[in-house]
Amino acid sequence: MDTQNFKKEDINGELERLWSLPFIFLNLSFFFVFMNITFFYLYPLALDAMGSEAHVIGLVMGAFSIAAVISRPSLGKLVALKGESRVMSLGVMVCFFGSLGYNLITDFGPGMLLIRVIHGIGFSAFISGGFSFAAKTFHPDKLGEAFGILGAALMAAVSSAPSFGEFLIRQWGFHGLYLAAAGALILAWFATFIAINPLPPSTKKGDNKFIVRYLPLLKKRSFLFLLCSTFIFAHCQATVPNFLALIASEKGINSGPFFFSSYFSAILILLTMGRFIDRYGKLFFLKFAYPLFAIGIFLIPQMLSASFLSFPAIVYGVGIGLLFPAHNALAAGHGDRNEKPAIMSLFTTVYDTGFITGTVISGWIAYQTSLEMLFWSCGIFCLIGFLTVMTAPIKDN
Questions:
Q1: Tag placement on the chain: N or C end, fewer CB within 10 Å?
Q2: Are residues 177 and 224 in the same domain?
Q3: pTM of this prediction?
Q4: CATH code at 46?
Q5: Could you tell me if residue 9 is inside a domain?
Q6: Alpha carbon distance 150, 126 (integer Å)
Q7: Nearest to 265 by CA among 145, 376, 155
């Protein structure tokens, strides 16, 4: 390998210089995969056009997330056995054929659910391999900065894809959306190939002798409490975008400015604060960011109809921009090299579970009480996360 053309590596294949060819293309691969996934945030429009009722739409959309979460531990074992490269490529390929499969669906039935499950498993495979790859190859002293930039790539995809998808639907219908989603995965596969191939073989092969065991990892109190904090963060992060439009509509205003301000703030923080997270400690920034995150959520019902709408949006966005890389970097710092697939699979499983409960449980709370009470309860849950990181024995490795 020509290290002058790519980067300087230590004995474990970790990238000492962050901005390298593998790092840039890894971020691009995540961007295109998440663009594919976010395109299908618009799938309820297709289901509605098919005449599906609300509970059917919920079932179909939930099938993807449930399949992704349930399959993650098994895919983490597959990563340890076969290596990150193969599992990431397999995940992209499965998502690609799943995306094309939507063109064959004309009404609700087993075929539709099967496509959603296949799509979810493919996404889960990419996440299992991708986050393990990141944990292994990002230098330990630059995990915060690396995951901050990775988070910015994900958020850029999530914030841009829906508008682009709506344009595609207007111009070419839902088949245009599905083909564009599949096209994004072709770009993701090329980006993944370029990201991984400059690296030494040790970063691409699994260890057939290493047996993944999840229970011993959960017995480590530092990692267990980190997972608790991760769940709280993900749950609250998912609650706000899922129900903000509803409470904004209730108050007769447009939710667009909030989303723009929060996403812009989060991306700016993700791109600029990672090196400070590495320098001053991931745990320090968890303790610093949780109150900001909670304040932003608490203030949404009070300020949503006021001229100060941008304030809770910015504070909420800053909280995401600090909490996402800090949680990821802390998780990636746990365990030895062989344990990374299992650690990151558990971590991403908990994170995605929080996104499911942020929709389902928060919806139940809103139904039983009110949207305003939902945001108050979500803010209180954030404070529980703050108390967790303040008192629990989470180690900043």
A1: N
A2: no
A3: 0.87
A4: 1.20.1250.20
A5: no
A6: 14
A7: 155
